[in-house]
């Protein structure tokens, strides 16, 4: 395997990106970068600063003054201006606000810059929505994960339930559909597979099966 390997994992919410990317990173001994966490940190800061989320200029100004650091140890903490926001960025309010903020070109420009800097640190697997198309167009391997809307909603519901947040499955499904629509229809870096991405449908497959498949693909690179 190439010692500087770059793997891009994209796909909609609940397709299994982070679970799979984390497991692949562990097996290969490479960095995992969760780019969604960066957009979430900006959304959280916007909500906390009482900046109206439709004030693009104010959000853009704030992004320039924000420091986001991802910890690459197994704990995978996320820091925003020095504060550990790992749990706070998973709140449903943040999930609701994040797509709006992620559509602002000024936010994307700054975060893409940070993401490319992370990728320069060495071999990396990065997940998001535009990694194969925008952030790392020269990635050695591009995977686009999908799953049926029912399975994706159920996975996200379970994740929230396990972290003590009880929402109805319907609520989760509706939030997810709204987010997918916003992410797919935005003008800048919409959620679409790169032309050279391998599309993997994870419906009904175990994490282990998908991870094995990706590891096999990296062996030839
Ligand atoms: O993967 P996630 O659910 O944590 O992502 C949160 C939001 O951030 C999601 O609605 C889309 C946006 N996002 C993005 O636009 N581009 C990325 N590379 C990663 C996430």
Structural class: alpha/beta
**Over the alpha carbons, how many angstroms does the gyration radius reach?**
17 Å
- State the order of secondary-structure elements, H for helix, E for strand: EHEHHEEEHHEHEHHEH
Q: Could you name the CATH topology?
A: Rossmann fold
Strand residue percentage: 5-15%
Low-confidence segments: none
* Reported CATH architecture: 3-Layer(aba) Sandwich
Strand and helix map with partners:
Blueprint lengths: L5 E5 L6 H12 L2 E4 H14 L7 H9 L3 E3 L7 E3 L2 E2 L7 H11 L2 H15 L4 E5 L2 H5 L5 E6 L2 H14 L6 H17 L12 E4 L5 H13 L2
Parallel strand pairs: 1-6, 1-7, 2-6, 7-8
Antiparallel strand pairs: 3-4, 4-5
Helix pairs in contact: 1-9, 2-4, 2-5, 4-8, 7-8
The protein binds 2'-deoxycytidine-5'-monophosphate.
Describe the structure.
The model has no long low-confidence stretch (mean pLDDT 94). It contains nine helices and eight strands. The protein has one domain (6-218): P-loop containing nucleotide triphosphate hydrolases (Rossmann fold), CATH 3.40.50. By secondary structure, it is an alpha/beta fold. A hairpin with a 7-residue loop joins strand 3 (68-70) and strand 4. The structure holds 2'-deoxycytidine-5'-monophosphate. Residues 13, 35-36, 39-40, 98-99, 102, 128-130, 179, 183 line the site of 2'-deoxycytidine-5'-monophosphate.
